[in-house]
Amino acid sequence: MNVNIFYQTDVPKHLRRTGLIKKAVLSALGEYRKEKAEVNIVFVDKKEILRINKAYLNHHYVTDVISFNQPRPPFTHGEPWAFGDVFVCYQVAREQAKNFGHTFLQEMMMYAVHGTLHLTGMDDHTPPERAEMDRQAEKIIARALAQ
């Protein structure tokens, strides 16, 4: 699995911990890590996340993270394929970090991991599902930061 990180907004250099974010995303992918595929994590601003929400989800509001699974092409013949894309709103992460007792980096990682867990099939439509996703994400981030 190849993980690409893109910064399309003014994320400060000290928070551009690409290797650490990749490590956490790979951990969140679990068994999917073995796929010959690609995941893109894209850090954007509020204007861009709003544009994506409106264009693809018909939501007229800013969100923290959006995930898009890509279907497996029927005939990949071992070629890499686009597994999915995760768009993280850096500005929302910065605003929410204090509310959740996280650093900016932890909150950025939380959204990247949360979006990746969605790519693997986890949902957060109910409070118990959301709590389980949050537990998984916290565990993955704590492991990544400890190494």
Concise account of the structure shown:
This protein has 147 residues and is α/β, with parallel strands linked by helices. The protein contains five helices and four strands; from the N terminus they run E-H-E-H-E-E-H-H-H.
How would you explain this protein's 3D organization?
The protein contains five helices and four strands. It has helices spanning 18-29, 46-57, 90-100, 104-119, 127-146, and strands at residues 2-7, 37-44, 65-69, 81-89. The longest helix has 20 residues, at 127-146. The mean pLDDT is 93.
Q: What secondary-structure arrangement, pairings included, does this model have?
A:
Layout: E1 2-7, H1 18-29, E2 37-44, H2 46-57, E3 65-69, E4 81-89, H3 90-100, H4 104-119, H5 127-146
Parallel strand pairs: 1-2, 2-4
Antiparallel strand pairs: 3-4
Helix pairs in contact: 1-4, 1-5, 3-4, 4-5
Features:
147 residues, alpha/beta, 5 helices, 19% strand
Strand order of the largest sheet: 1-2-4-3
Secondary-structure element order, N to C: EHEHEEHHH
Helix content: 40-55%
Measured between the Cα atoms of the first and last residue, the distance is 20 Å
Radius of gyration: 15 Å
Average pLDDT, rounded to a whole number, is: 93
Tell me about the largest β-sheet.
4 strands, mixed
Overall 3D form = globular
Question: Tally of extended strands?
Answer: 4
Structural class call reads alpha/beta
- Count every helix, treating DSSP H or I runs of 4 or more residues as helices: 5
State which percent range the strand residues make up. 15-25%
Q: List low-pLDDT spans.
A: none
